[in-house]
């Protein structure tokens, strides 16, 4: 492999690992806040216990997200000096503000972990809200740099020099709000389904008449309702994202759908794989006119095909598979959320069958897989550019040798951190099993 491929593989591996912890680090605080609100409203101490236990999990995840995020920052400078030169002159503002967002999250995380029992009910809610605000702000600010890569603004390059810099124009680039919304709602969705996944697994292992089953069922329903709601919001935001691609990165949208010829009434290709030789999506299912509607809210919208661009501007065509995986998982999670709500609230069944619980167990891993597909699609679909139509990825990579050993070193680090994280979770929650209050509601009764 050449240095460009190795550099992309190294940084891609770092982000694939870090994004798991970063996403859950945004999603779990929302679940903790909702559990606190439900406790304050119902005085059901099960929700207080949920908030405490989930906070411990959040602390463990944060302990891994910090070093993996630091590694990502270091790798940006080591592997992509050309890109970071532009970042330093134009779009450094999000990195600077993110430091304060992290301090906000860490400060109130410490207060809540160590002093929750000594805080007033209002201050408990304020503390968790500030954790949520700091975590969400960090995600939005860092992701804004990615938004800038796809829709650069606030500068020009003249004779190889960066000129006419407007940091706020770069900050509020055309895709800022859509990208910020997407990263937040998808993280909330993933955190909720992670909770639902664990709760469903615990319910499978518990007796249906036991106190533990009732406790985990409350957590499951909360996770499914929140996860299903935000999966729907993620889909709606995804529609906006597709329209953004249509306006600003048309070849990325064309590659995502395997569209080669510019046309109105363009079909949406579901499944299959893109064949560049025959210029079609093989084994896919075409939905007539739907791509035009998604791109412009009208069936006669003209969607630009790949053949209108030089071949060297084409993104890798396998992003069609990534795009389908991301959309397919998101759609499935909407159904999962509706299934849980309908089974409990509409059919009024007090017990979930094991096969339904098995589906719920898969929802958490599927949500994380969808996040991975989405992130890889977003970055790979921008290729060959690191800054769209301004700087090629190949022109920003380091000229230093020795990237190969660096890749395998960091791969070993992430394997180690992943194993340690699992062992810490098993150790902590194994030594601190669920201790339910005997005076709580009787088995099987759930809060509204």
TrEMBL record:
Signal peptide: none annotated. GO terms for biological process: aerobic electron transport chain. Its main location: membrane. InterPro entries: Cyt-d_ubiquinol_oxidase_su_1 (IPR002585). It is found in: Cell membrane. Keywords: Cell membrane, Electron transport, Heme, Iron, Membrane, Metal-binding, Transmembrane, Transmembrane helix, Transport. The keyword DNA-binding does not apply. One of its GO terms (cellular component) is cytochrome complex. Pfam families: Cyt_bd_oxida_I (PF01654). One of its GO terms (molecular function) is oxidoreductase activity, acting on diphenols and related substances as donors, oxygen as acceptor. Coiled coil: none annotated. The chain crosses the membrane at residues 15-39, 60-83, 95-115, 122-142, 176-198, 219-236, 317-343, 355-378, 406-425. It is a multi-pass membrane protein. Belongs to the cytochrome ubiquinol oxidase subunit 1 family. This is Cytochrome d ubiquinol oxidase subunit I. It comes from Brevibacillus borstelensis AK1.
């Amino acid at each position: 492999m050449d240095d460009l491929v190795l550099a992309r593989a190294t940084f891609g591996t770092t982000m694939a690992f870090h994004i798991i912890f970063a996403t859950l680090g945004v999603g779990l605080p929302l679940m903790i806040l909702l559990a606190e609100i439900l406790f304050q409203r119902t005085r059901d101490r099960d929700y207080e216990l949920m908030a405490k236990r989930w906070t411990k999990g959040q602390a463990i995840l944060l302990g891994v997200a910090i070093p993996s995020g630091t590694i990502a920052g270091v790798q940006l400078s080591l592997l992509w000096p050309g890109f970071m030169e532009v970042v330093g002159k134009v779009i450094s503002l999000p990195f600077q503000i993110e430091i304060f967002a992290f301090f906000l999250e860490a400060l109130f995380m410490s207060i809540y972990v160590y002093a929750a029992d000594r805080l007033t009910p209002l201050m408990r809610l304020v503390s968790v809200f500030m954790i949520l605000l700091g975590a969400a702000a960090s995600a939005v600010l860092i992701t804004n740099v990615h938004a800038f890569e796809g829709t650069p603004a606030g500068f020009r390059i003249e004779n190889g020099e960066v000129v006419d810099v407007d940091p706020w124009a770069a900050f509020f680039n055309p895709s800022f709000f859509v990208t910020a919304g997407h990263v937040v709602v998808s993280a909330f969705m993933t955190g909720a389904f992670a909770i639902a996944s664990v709760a469903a697994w615990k319910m499978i292992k518990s007796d249906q008449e036991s106190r533990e089953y009732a406790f985990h069922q409350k957590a499951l329903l909360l996770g499914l309702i929140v996860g299903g709601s935000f999966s729907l919001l993620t889909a709606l935001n995804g529609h906006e994202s597709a329209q953004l691609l249509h306006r600003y990165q048309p070849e990325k949208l064309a590659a995502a759908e395997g569209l080669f010829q510019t046309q109105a009434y363009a079909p949406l290709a579901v499944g299959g794989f893109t064949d560049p030789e025959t210029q079609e999506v093989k084994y896919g299912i075409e939905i007539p006119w739907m791509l035009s509607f998604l791109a412009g809210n009208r069936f006669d919208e003209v969607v630009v095909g790949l053949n209108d661009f030089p071949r060297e501007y084409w993104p890798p065509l396998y992003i069609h598979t990534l795009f389908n995986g991301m959309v397919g998982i998101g759609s499935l999670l909407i159904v999962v959320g509706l299934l849980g709500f309908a089974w409990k609230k509409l059919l009024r069944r007090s017990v979930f069958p094991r096969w339904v619980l098995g589906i719920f167990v898969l929802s958490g891993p599927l949500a994380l897989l969808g996040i991975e597909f989405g992130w890889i699609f977003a970055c790979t679909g921008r290729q060959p550019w690191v800054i769209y139509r301004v700087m090629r990825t190949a022109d920003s990579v380091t000229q230093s040798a020795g990237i190969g050993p660096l890749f395998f070193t960091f791969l070993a680090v992430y394997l180690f951190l992943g194993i340690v994280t699992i062992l810490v979770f098993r150790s902590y929650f194994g030594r601190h099993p669920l201790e339910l209050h005997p005076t709580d509601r009787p088995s099987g009764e759930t809060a509204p």
